[in-house]
Specification:
homodimer; about 425 residues; alpha/beta; Aldehyde Dehydrogenase, Chain A, domain 2; seven-stranded parallel beta sheet; about 20% strand; globular; cytoplasm (chains A, B); proline biosynthesis (chains A, B); NADP (chains A, B); Gamma-glutamyl phosphate reductase (chains A, B); EC 1.2.1.41 (chains A, B)
């Protein structure tokens, strides 16, 4: 299928969605069995081969993308959405570079941990192995096609990708490069499959076929993620909200505190690890809040404060109860004055989305308490919440962030796409 | 509530099951917040206090159990079920001893792993923390009440227990000891709650309230587990089947092989890690099968073989295709002659329930291939499948065995009831 034909056939239907998805699932399951056994060298060669094909197909990809953009403009997509859709040279270069980076990462598959001999004489360890088949459902950004495929491939998983229909032609052009790269090294084409029908029933099937798909990773807006999580019959790796807090304790170094809370809010606004609520210990509120307000004003951040905060900085708007529970993804910040760490942690316990929460303090005891007691996927002392990121954590990759408790929590890299099995080496031992 | 009153009120109803379960859930969630912060010492003291109360209430417990047994006999429960229900002195002693053992286990909560400094200067590690609230649904055996409560408590989790209605009086008597033990050390009563209504709607709620319950562990027959897994709206830690294989490769030491395959089948029959299908490499089939058949015959094991197996040992019954997919939990064994490890692994790939599969071999290369390529929760070389067990694995405990891939796989001990969160210690770092 050429990019031209795809653009003309932008709304692709298949006669029988159930049968189509079953066939996709079975192929993925078969491919996963092969990928599980693929050597690191072959997987890396595949990634580099895909990169080479991307390089060679640069103009074709841009042409396909141009068609998506044209359709998008006709449909009235706004500038921000068109920007997310766009694939220019810089972004294609980033995709190629990303493939090289993933190829350079250590392969977690096959690592054996904790090999020890038990009283019975058996030697026991845990071996890291791929999850199997991963379904990734995403909107807008075509680069996710490459991110997802490369991370799944490197971790030995087959994947089924379902991108946004607005990026259909781009995604198909990209997936053709992937298919060629896989073929170059003898890996099955079904290692990476795109759902090529835009029929919504296909998504419903993808998230409800545990015999073929082991886990779903939705990437996109909150309503997409909520819908998928509620209907999925397999585990979902996701985060819903990023309502992150920073609590400035009375013992904090106020210069560090200011740098951290300005960075945590203003470094980037539309990201899940941006601080949305600032908690300030009463003894330092009068000293700190005016400094911060001035700095936030310079950045154009709207402040919404509790009564005591507004009393100290009258220019603040009054915060409603709803503000404490809101992820703004914008230059807006809720501020609350609290009486000590107990109240701060109680507020966090109630309102945090359990993504990332931080304390700024010079108290050894309070730092340890905060780390031990706050129940979030990342808990920090004296660092900006913006560090909650797979690359910053040294994972070398990030397919998403999980705020759930089971399997993987926090930024999800290659290891999050694997599981472990017990391996036992004996010498004829039997149970007595 | 005395044991006497309970027996007279054996079918307990509550007016509004939804409200009742919501209240149970909220109490559990609140208790979990406290338990998360409880010290190892307090948790251990609680376990020992519960043990002391069990000791003191021995006669009361037996009296309550006697009422359950009487009701069971009236209802026509068979001898095996009545035996599972019975609490005699030995079993009460075992429960007390079990509490002491769990108290003696290392506490996984709070352990920090992998603390390292990243290029940005932040120090990053992963801290082990409780899952939160665990729902445990079980049948018949009242000792599960103690197993479950003690493991959840030690790992810092609150739990909601729903036992079989046939053990109602026994479970209530046991839970009273637990409540007293918790009170003795100042831990919340809601750390361990029993669902005291036998209304089935309560189970439906328990498995579908993710705001209060983080994970469900069903213990019982396959139909219970299937029903719960299919209806649960939260993760379920479970195994469905234990269709375990042993493959005897041509290079195997036949004495080791014989000891292993006899043990794997006959050590205990009604357990999930008993071998249900034996695969024998063709070159050693003629030599091995007659030896094995004689030994199995002595144990009274019925053999069902493929054509080639029956040709070697005519006394075998012919196996049907369905036999390869059957977990007998009985003295019956399927036997298949295969041509090499590829065919053995293909058979396992198709029929294994991914619980435990083993190879007997002297080939270094084939041993490593089997360990790497077989996709089960436990994979073994030269050891009986009966070793797939939390105590044999050194976990010190076992709440169940998981054959799913996510979160925990294989025997589930204390660590399986925990998760991890990232902890970051900085010195004022901000994202550039």
């Amino acid at each position: 299928m050429t990019a031209q034909a795809n653009a003309n056939d932008a709304i692709t239907q298949v006669a029988d969605v159930d049968a189509y998805m079953t066939q996709l699932g079975q192929s993925a399951r078969d491919a996963a069995t092969q990928l599980r056994r693929a050597s690191t060298a072959v997987k890396n060669q595949a990634l580099l081969a895909v990169a080479a094909h991307l390089l060679a197909a640069r103009e074709l990809i841009k042409a396909a993308n141009a068609q998506d953009l044209e359709r998008g403009r006709d449909k009235g997509l706004d500038a921000a959405l068109l920007d997310r859709l766009a694939l220019n040279d810089a972004r294609i270069d980033a995709m190629i570079e990303g493939l090289h980076q993933v190829a350079a990462l250590p392969d977690p598959v096959g690592e054996i941990d904790g090999l020890r001999t038990l009283p019975s004489g058996i030697e026991l360890g845990q071996m890291r192995v791929p999850l199997g088949v991963i379904g990734i459902i995403y909107e807008s950004r075509p680069n996710v096609t490459l991110d997802a495929a490369s991370l799944c491939l490197k971790s030995g998983n087959a994947c089924i990708l379902r991108g946004g229909s607005e990026a259909n032609a781009s995604n198909i052009a990209l997936s053709e490069c992937i298919t060629k790269g896989l073929a170059d090294v003898g890996l099955p084409a079904a290692a990476v499959q795109m759902v090529e029908t835009t029929d919504r029933a296909a998504v419903g099937r993808l998230i409800a076929m545990p015999e073929y798909v082991d886990v779903i990773i939705p990437r996109g807006g909150k309503s997409l993620i909520e819908r998928i999580s509620s209907d999925a019959r397999v585990p979902v790796i996701k985060h819903l909200d990023g309502i992150c807090h920073v609590y400035v304790d009375a013992s904090a170094d106020l210069d560090k505190a200011e740098a951290i809370v300005i960075n945590a809010k203003t470094h980037r606004y539309g990201v899940c690890n941006a601080m949305e609520t600032l908690l300030v210990d009463e003894p330092v509120a009068a000293q700190l809040l005016p400094r911060l307000a001035a700095a936030y004003l310079e950045h154009g951040v709207e402040l919404r404060g509790c009564e005591r905060a507004c009393a100290i900085v009258p220019q603040m708007n009054a915060a409603s109860d709803e503000d404490w529970a809101t992820e703004y993804l914008a230059p807006i910040l809720s501020i609350r004055v609290v009486d000590g760490i107990e109240e701060a942690m109680a507020h966090i316990e109630r309102y945090s989305s359990r993504h990332t929460d931080a304390i700024v303090t010079e108290s050894y005891t309070l730092a340890r308490r905060f780390l031990a007691e706050v129940d979030s996927s990342s808990v920090m002392v004296n660092a900006s919440t913006r560090f909650a990121d797979g690359f910053e954590y040294g994972l070398g990759a990030e397919i998403g962030i999980s705020t759930d408790r089971l399997h993987v929590r926090g930024p999800v890299g290659l290891e999050g796409l694997t599981t472990r099995k017990y391996v036992v080496m004996g010498d004829g031992q039997i149970r007595q």
